[in-house]
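Researcher: Let's try something more involved. This one mixes different molecule types, so please make sure each is placed in the same coordinate frame as the others.
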Amino acid sequence: MGFHSWILVISMQPDYVIYTENLTKQYANGVYALRGVTLEIEKGDCVGYLGPNGSGKTTTLKILTNLIRPTSGHAYIKGIDVNREPERALRYIGALIEVPGMYDYLTPHDMLSYQGAVCGMNKKAIKNRIETILSQVKLSDWEYAKIRSFSTGMVRRLVIASAMFHNPEILILDEPVLGLDPSGMKDIRDVIKRLQRSEKTILISSHLLYEVNEICDRVIFLDKGKVLAYDTIDKLRKRTHFRRIQIEFLKPLTKEDVEKIRAIDKVINIDVKKSSVKIRYKGKPDTSAKILKELFVNGFDIISYTPESASLEDVYASIFGKDTEVA
Amino acid sequence: MKRYPNGNLSKNLYHVVLAVKYELLKHMRSKRIVINLILAIVLPLLFYIIPKAYNMDFPAHSEDFAQMNLGFVTTLIIICAVFFAGDAIVSEFEKKTGLITFLTPQRKTSMFLGKYLAAFIAVLVMVSVYYMIANLEIIILYGLNSIPEVMGLSYLISLLYITSALSVVYIFSSVMKGTISSSLLSFSTLMMTMPIISGLLFFVNVEPWFLVTYSSGLITDVFSGIGTTMTIEMGGGGDEITMYSPQFNIGIIMMVLYAVGLYLVSIFITMRREVV
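Model: All components are placed in one shared frame. Result:
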């Protein structure tokens, strides 16, 4: 890219704190991990990066943090080409990528002091920040314990603390709650929500749709190295073809009943629990009326019939064409 | 708030110092320091204890004792270099600690220079301990004024050899995928492959001036005379082997070239390497 076109790119994208332009990554074995991925993420956005295994999520995040280089295309953080000026760009980023190895002979105090010192913080600022950040991830009592004695969840929390330590404007988190127990997940979720309220820009890749739904306001769906959809969760919900109905029947359903329901046109998937059924169908809202008619025609006694708005899970299933539950 | 107000140079230097500090902390908290320190103490002591225990005569001159004793300083340097630098680069990729350190806003070159310097300091300490003990033995056996004049020169050459050995280790650490294979290859290259090639070249009367292990002979050659060549007749057939010893200038140049050249190549390779 010539100097003038480089200037043009920067001037065209003043509001995007994360911007990738046609990122393509082909590994040495010939496999394409990314095929022309363009992302535009504005300041303060909290974006979920979703896709099945091997879709290219981690590859994108690694390019954004200069751990790998794109085969073609560019990644910009606040207008800085990450792969040309990584040192400048990384000042704005706090990142957690995959499952990092730990210097297990260090203590959280040592590790975070190093992090602060690299970022140019003085001793007093480092000390105060360590207290604050360890309390946020509930590791205050472990400040001087060797990391080798930590559980997986504690290590994960420490790495997140390390990512947030220099108070970066942008957080890039790859499966942040991986390996955490439900309470640990909630702690991290709360931390991320707090960061979101403080106008941080957050890009989270996750398999846990519930987590993304709770934290993010926008999502990007990626598959086979291509962006399939990028919008707010609300807009994607409205656009999705997959919807759900919650139905309560008078009597528990027999196997025959279940097969009859499954055979109704547009029904994709059903989840039976005694006399209640969750139906996922493909179609517009009026399809729900047709399903109701079919149920009456088949002689079902219905107590309640509640069409539900599409969840992020439905959006995922709609986009990836899956008729099964996703993680 | 900022510690480095004087621009990028002071910032980069500060990052180098930080890397040195934390790498030394790693060495101190692991058993590497203890193991190598024991080696640095025991190796020179053997040259005093064994002859004493078996009532053997010590060499008549302190120079000969120093040459014999310090003959093992190259072995210590190689072992220490592998211990302290074998995993410096490769472990960041193998153990994925790079997923933390490479995400910090600093140059990788600063980080790896710091690790290199930390390894140098650690090996330097071990070699210094070795020289101190060897000199103490000379004082005990030959008197206070018997320390050879060229002892300091030998020490300086061994410091130069530390940098060459570390750069050889760094090359393997930058290209290999595992710490063990990197360490084994470094060790075998410096301890076996290069010396074996040197020996074979002697047989065909070619001076192995380009091998850094051959140049390291200067560390002890300073006590007996540098660049002396001996011809030995093999059997009764008239075949001769020339036993070369390194020329001072060429030896020093080769050590500098290995140290600087291989260090730069290893950093170039590391900069291109991706955390896949």
